[in-house]
Amino acid sequence: MEPVRIMWRQVMEMARDTIALLPQVAVALVVLILTWLIAALGRALVSKAFGRTKLRPSLQDLFTLLTSILIWVFGIMIAAVIVFPGLTPASILAGLGIGSVAIGFAFKDVFENFLAGIIILFRREMRMGDHIECEGIEGKVAHIAIRESHIRQTDGQLVIVPNAMLFKNPVYVRTDQEHRRQTVICGVAYDVDLNEAREVITKAIEGCKTVEQGDHPIQVFAQEFGESSINFEVTWWTGSAPVEQRRSRDEVVTAMKRALDDAGLEIPFPYRTLTFKEPLPLTRSNDD
User: What residues does the Mechanosensitive ion channel MscS C-terminal domain cover (predicted)?
Assistant: First the structure.
């Protein structure tokens, strides 16, 4: 019977301690409810304040999230001190510091992507709507979140990329500038006058609507002696978006082909001459 009495005594002591804590628990719940209301109000005020600025929407969301987290941390600390009077803010922060080390090791990749996302959000060189390429992934930046970024490829597929990959590896921003250079190789026959061919090609490109002719000149350089042609390196500038690049290349190639044909300048194709070391034997058919 003695063990039963001891157990009963312990249960009663726990019940008394719990009843004694009920007022503190009630106050702590009120504090948490107030924290929820203040966090909602803080998010609304921050969103309204940054909504009047030219700050990126992704950065506005980041500051709103950080404001909410900060309010909740203070609210939970106050509630914990109320329920457990022995706790102090210093001891809570010390506990959080020790716990954060363990959590940091356990969730290393998550925090790495989180910090990389914050840095990417502050970048001016890469914005939502830009066309980028990184580690073989190329497409339009559809969304930048805290942990990941969404890349919409030109074929319509959505690729979700960890922010750490965009932070650690080279990122090619295709649309950082309004215009981007295009280059094609155009060959003419060896008996063609190169100056005449250069002039015909240049005038053909100048007549293309997709070619930017302001600050960037059209360049046509004789590049090399090919197997069956003299090859020109033809360079011009057009819109930086992938569809603009493809549209301009189509228009320029079509215009050069038409202009060279109209001028009677040959665009040769490779010739093949077959030689045999010994005469080939001729066989007679049965009809002969």
Answer: 184-267
**How far, in Å, CA of 164 to CA of 134, rounded?**
12
How far apart, in Å, are the Cα atoms of 212 and each of 179, 182, 222?
A: 8, 11, 22
| Mean pLDDT, range 207-233, rounded to an integer | 90
Taking alpha carbons only, the member of 126, 173, 165, 169 closest to residue 147 is: 165
Topology of domain 179-262, CATH: Alpha-Beta Plaits (3.30.70)
Q: How many residues are given for the chain?
A: 288
d(CA 122, CA 58): 9
User: What CATH number does the domain located at 125-173 have?
Assistant: 2.30.30.60
Q: Which segments of 123-182 does DSSP mark as H helices, in order?
A: 163-168
Query: pTM value?
Result: 0.61
- Domains in the chain: boundaries: 8-106, 125-173, 179-262
As a whole number of angstroms, the distance between CA 115 and CA 197 comes to 56
- Read off the pLDDT of residues 160-204 as tens digits, 9 standing for 90 and up: 999 889 888 999 998 888 899 999 999 999 999 999 999 999 999
- pLDDT of res. 245: 92
| φ, ψ of residue 233 in degrees (nearest 5) | -95, 115
- Tell me if the domain spanning 8-106 has CATH number 1.10.3730: no
Residue type, 41: L
Q: Show the DSSP H helices in the chain as ranges.
A: 2-51, 57-83, 89-106, 108-122, 163-168, 194-206, 242-262
d(CA 41, CA 47): 10
